[in-house]
Task: inverse folding
């Protein structure tokens, strides 16, 4: 079985990736986290009663708001860790591999094509424990214990609120753009890539239980020809089990809706 679970399904989540994580590489204006300006001190010797009057609308409207300054892509790991929610931080511990946003960009792009990220850009290793199949007569079926191995990972990928996932994707957009450019994909639309990745997750159908597998040397393959012919991402998501797949489906729908609302807000469409 494959060695790595696609995160970005969640990446999404950070970015749940609240992943993950979900904005274009050809920049559009977005709402960004801002620093709250510190009010000016009152005049010495003057006692003020009540809050100061609000400034006239003509003075406050259109005032520039300082945006959160992003670090260079090469130095962005610590910044990413300060922005992700606690439930996602476990996916990117201090001892984890570096280049978090490059990995997220690779995960999103791979998932949008139904692929699973492997090698140097993989983020989440296969959970501890062995793949287990129970034997019935001359046939093998995936044991429920195999599905349970993925519970904690799926919980981390789906714990981030959908609106927060969309916000993180917008925050990290410029850095993800640079990473995509390094991959030979300048001008790629990050929102379109994220939406395609979510669509790939939602396209995975729930298999009929129990799931039969066939042993070939030291590996197993699906006995069902349709399951075995599925994309690498689809086959990996089937392996997490029906309960976890249902959680991923629900979260993918919610994140997809949050990203759509972000796009509509950016274009001023109500």
Result:
């Amino acid at each position: 079985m494959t060695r790595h679970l696609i995160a970005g399904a969640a990446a999404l989540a950070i970015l749940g990736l609240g992943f993950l994580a979900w904005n274009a590489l050809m920049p559009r204006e977005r709402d960004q986290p801002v620093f709250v300006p510190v009010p000016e001190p009152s005049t010495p010797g003057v006692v003020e009663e009540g809050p100061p009057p609000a400034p006239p609308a003509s003075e406050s409207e259109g005032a520039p708001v300082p945006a959160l300054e992003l670090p260079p892509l090469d130095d962005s790991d610590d910044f990413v860790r300060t922005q992700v929610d606690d439930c996602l931080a476990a996916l990117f511990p201090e001892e984890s591999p570096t280049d978090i946003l490059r990995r997220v960009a690779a995960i999103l792009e791979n998932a949008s094509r139904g692929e699973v990220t492997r090698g140097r850009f993989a983020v989440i290793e296969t959970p501890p424990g062995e793949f287990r199949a129970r034997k019935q007569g001359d046939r093998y079926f995936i044991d429920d214990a195999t599905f349970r191995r993925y519970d904690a990972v799926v919980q981390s990928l789906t714990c981030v609120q959908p609106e927060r996932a969309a916000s993180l994707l917008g925050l990290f957009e410029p850095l993800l753009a640079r990473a995509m450019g390094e991959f030979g994909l300048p001008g790629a639309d990050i929102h379109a890539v994220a939406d395609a990745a979510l669509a790939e997750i939602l396209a995975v159908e729930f298999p009929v239980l129990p799931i039969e597998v066939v042993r070939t040397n030291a590996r197993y393959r699906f006995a069902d020809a349709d399951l075995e012919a599925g994309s690498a991402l689809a086959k990996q998501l089937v392996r997490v089990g029906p309960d976890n797949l249902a959680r991923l489906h629900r979260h993918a729908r919610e994140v997809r809706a949050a990203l759509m609302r972000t796009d509509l807000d950016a274009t001023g469409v109500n």
